[in-house]
Design brief:
heterodimer, A: about 375 residues, alpha/beta, Aspartate Aminotransferase, domain 1, Aspartate Aminotransferase, domain 2, 2 domains, 7-stranded mixed sheet, 12 strands, B: about 80 residues, alpha+beta, Translation Initiation Factor IF3, 4 strands, about 30% strand, globular, binds pyridoxal-5'-phosphate
């Protein structure tokens, strides 16, 4: 049986069109985009073409787009760059409790440097209450960070309402959109983070949108690339790949994936006694399903499914080796035991009806085996 | 004296460094039809030294180059 890949929130298979768009920049068009000769110009053109595509996709201006090495760097840059540029005396951040590790970790590090961090709770489906954002703001708050779509449970946050509060109070909003990028309209945020490998593009490339007027200190200093905001020779093949990947998503595609995901959810919840949905029923990212399967450990489930040819995960790829229960699932109010019995199945534009039927059968078998030999 | 034609599109590249400024202009020119006019604003110094030359080398024609306060105004005809 050809493997069934249902770990698309972790990373997606590159689209052949993206690989084709990248290839020339690793071969004949190898020039450094910072060089002013014809080789450089060819590379710089590819970079600027991609910058324009990104700007359009993020409802931003080209000069607001900074390319970097991916979602992790862009999140670190948004948070640390803002913090380092903050006026003395303003040392407070607001962040949702279910953000990706690349958001939470820089916030936690800032705390060790004397910053105050308010972590917003979420309800049982993972939603942040915009009223909590308003109540958390202080005169010394420099940034609010709420991701558009959660990577473990797919919750789509009320970003427009949160953005309105932030705008009214004059506090910039940062939104990690790595999971939702191209699958829905961009978040109306001042700082937006995206990467390519979640949207059938290459790994190691991403971008930060910095709204004009915001000042961030760079993480990387050196040759002055990206208007001095991110030094380092630009990853031209990656940037060309990111630009190409951005042009591929469509609303119709997202609707079709959501339909398949709903079918998978219905089949799994129907086929497996005791199975429960984790995360929201509505306002959920089209690619995401997360279920609690009591009586099975998530780790054992992932391994059993793998042997049956189905690639799934317990949650965030970065946390999948960890023994701690997911911070996202526990924030919803799940017990550590239920959090440990949870499984994430994430679809892509290439997932088929046949695959979800076969994956459901495999999951049924894996659960039956694990429950009879715990 | 012939009257200058009105530009079809405008691009403000003030504050954009070399060679991103030429690259951005070339990307815009790619999306226009041969014979159309693009008005570009570029900074003094390196940009005005490089941008017209780069556009010329890529087959476009700089028909006007003039001072516009602290910057420069270029009128570029899209090459075929
Ligand atoms: C929501 C979210 N943010 C950030 C990242 C990190 O991005 P990258 O792998 O490009 O560093 C990921 C996944 O890896 C993610 O799912």
């Amino acid at each position: 049986m050809t493997p069934i890949y249902l770990d698309n929130a972790s990373t997606t298979q590159p689209d052949p069109r993206v690989l084709a768009a990248m290839a020339p920049y690793s071969s004949e068009h190898f020039g450094n985009p910072a060089a002013t000769h014809a080789h450089g110009r060819t590379a710089a053109r590819a970079v600027e073409r991609a910058r324009g595509i990104l700007a359009d996709a993020l409802a931003a201006q080209p000069e607001e787009i900074v390319f970097c090495s991916g979602g992790t760097e862009a999140n670190n840059f948004a948070i640390l760059g803002t913090a380092w540029a903050a006026p003395a005396g303003k040392r407070h951040l607001v962040v949702s409790a279910i953000e990706h590790a690349s958001v939470l970790a820089p916030c936690a590090w800032l705390e060790t440097q004397g910053w105050q961090v308010t972590r917003l709770p979420v309800d049982s489906e993972g939603f942040v209450d915009p009223g909590d954002v308003r109540r958390a703001l202080r005169p010394e708050t420099v940034l609010v960070s709420v991701g558009q779509a959660n990577n473990e449970i797919g919750t789509l946050q009320p970003i427009a309402a949160i953005a309105a509060i932030c705008a009214e109070q004059g506090v910039p909003l940062h939104s990690d959109a790595c999971q939702s990028f191209t699958r829905m309209p961009p978040p109306p945020a001042d700082l937006i983070v995206v990467n390519a490998h979640k949207i059938h593009g290459p790994k190691g490339i991403g971008a930060l949108r910095i709204r004009t007027g915001l000042h961030l200190e760079p993480l990387l200093r050196g040759g002055g690339q990206e208007s001095g905001l991110r030094a380092g020779t630009l990853n031209t093949p990656g940037i060309a790949g990111l630009g190409s990947a951005v042009t591929l998503g469509s609303t119709e595609e997202s609707i079709a994936i959501a339909k398949l995901r709903d079918d998978l959810a219905a089949m799994v919840l129907d086929a497996i006694p005791g199975a429960r949905l984790n995360g929201p029923r509505g306002n959920r990212l089209c690619t995401n399903l997360n279920v609690c399967l009591p009586g099975c450990s998530g780790r054992a489930l992932v391994a059993a499914l793998d042997r049956l040819g189905v690639r799934a995960s317990r949650g965030s790829a970065c946390a999948s080796g960890s023994t701690r229960p997911s911070h996202v699932l526990t924030a919803l109010g799940l017990s550590p035991q239920d959090a440990d019995s949870s499984l994430r199945l994430t679809l892509s534009k290439w997932t088929t009806t046949e695959e979800i039927a076969n994956a459901t059968a495999a999951l049924q078998e894996a659960v039956r085996t694990l429950r009879s030999h715990p | 004296m012939t009257r200058q034609r009105e530009p079809d599109e405008h691009l403000d590249l003030r504050g954009v460094r070399c060679p991103a400024n030429s690259a951005r202009a070339l990307v815009r020119l790619e999306c226009m039809d041969a014979g159309q006019l693009l008005e570009i604003l570029v900074d003094d110094g390196e940009p005005i030294a490089h941008v017209p030359e780069a556009l010329d080398e890529e087959g476009h024609r700089v028909v006007v180059q003039e001072r516009a306060e602290a910057a420069w105004r270029l009128l570029v005809e899209v090459g075929g």
